[in-house]
Design the sequence.
């Protein structure tokens, strides 16, 4: 699949070279530290130059605003969007230098004067516009959720982006109904496995998982899919015809793009919906409008993070619902690998190479 979709990006080659040249980030010989500050500092992974490995820096802790909360980060989810941001390829482009990290779990250590939702000592999970790949982060109280006792820090850090996206896409955007057939591409990735989990166990849909290896297909079936397709060894369109008796699928959750998107689009049933979640394959496809008309199908964009500004209640509900479902045992994030903060570049490389399954997590403790 790597050759087919061009996963060997320029940053991956740079990461490979620099990781071979010396010790991993975090060792005294390979990091930049800003330790001259007279006040308390904390360690963070920092993007100082686009398309280059991250470095660890000691950053000065800042004072809280009235509605802000300081969280001691225990775990941070690694998302493809973090890697894109560090390449300058994400929709939102933070100014350099910046600390990536969109989702985290941890413990409240300080609250601003107007904070009423959490208190010191609370176990919380949250989202940020970046900055979570650090020993601590500061966020507004409204983007924090308390972690139920039944949920660990690693699982909590894996919930917001993948499960928030999956719930918003499949439920809010596509209005997936019980008994409908849902195709999930890149089904063994963080977002893909979450979509399989949600579609099968929450929405009671029939899930077909598509992935790039037999091992990944097996995992997706274990997660709830009733059938799987290895699109590196099989023809996706032909296999979907067989599995659906030529009826097609009702909903597609696609995070790959390229030819996989085109095959999935043409495999939709009458009034089917395809959810455009991302382009991990590297190729952004065009949509043939005539096909939309002839089959009365819909192509729907899903930029989950944008809901934070455009429709916060919907954004917040997607995470609250994920927490509730996890607490009830109806969904369970799959943690594929855990790295220490000083191994952040190795974690990025594993995601870029598609060497991991499920969610990759950084642990600060």
Sequence:
């Amino acid at each position: 699949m790597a050759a087919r979709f061009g996963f060997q990006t320029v940053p991956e080659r740079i990461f490979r070279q620099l990781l071979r040249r010396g010790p991993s980030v975090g060792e005294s010989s390979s990091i930049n530290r800003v330790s001259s500050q007279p006040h308390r500092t904390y360690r963070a992974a920092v993007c100082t130059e686009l398309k280059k490995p991250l470095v660890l820096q000691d950053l000065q802790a800042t004072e809280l605003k009235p509605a802000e909360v300081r969280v001691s980060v225990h775990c941070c989810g690694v998302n493809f969007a973090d890697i894109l941001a560090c390449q300058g390829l994400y929709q939102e482009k933070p100014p350099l230098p910046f600390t990536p990290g969109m989702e985290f779990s941890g413990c409240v250590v300080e609250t601003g004067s107007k904070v009423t939702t959490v208190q010191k000592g609370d176990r919380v999970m949250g989202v940020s516009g970046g900055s979570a790949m650090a020993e601590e982060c500061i966020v507004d109280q409204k983007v924090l959720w308390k972690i139920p006792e039944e949920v660990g820090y690693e699982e909590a850090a894996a919930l917001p982006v993948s499960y928030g996206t999956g719930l918003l896409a499949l439920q809010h955007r596509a209005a997936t109904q019980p008994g409908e057939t849902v195709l999930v591409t890149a089904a063994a990735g963080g977002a893909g496995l979450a979509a399989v989990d949600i579609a099968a166990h929450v929405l009671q849909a029939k899930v077909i998982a598509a992935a790039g290896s037999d091992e990944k297909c097996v995992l997706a079936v274990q997660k709830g899919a009733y059938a799987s397709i290895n699109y590196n060894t099989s023809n996706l369109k032909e296999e979907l015809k067989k599995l659906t008796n030529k009826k097609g699928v009702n909903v597609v959750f696609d995070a790959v793009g390229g030819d996989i998107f085109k095959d999935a689009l043409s495999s939709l049933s009458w009034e089917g919906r395809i959810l455009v979640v991302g382009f991990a394959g590297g190729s952004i496809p065009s949509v043939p409008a005539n096909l939309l008309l002839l089959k009365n199908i819909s192509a729907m964009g899903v930029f989950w993070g944008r809901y934070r500004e455009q429709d916060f209640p919907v954004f917040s509900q997607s995470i609250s619902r994920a927490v509730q479902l996890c607490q009830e045992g109806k969904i369970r994030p799959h943690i594929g690998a855990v790295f220490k903060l000083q191994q952040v570049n190795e974690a990025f490389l594993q995601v870029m190479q598609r060497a991991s399954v499920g969610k990759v997590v950084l642990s600060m403790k």
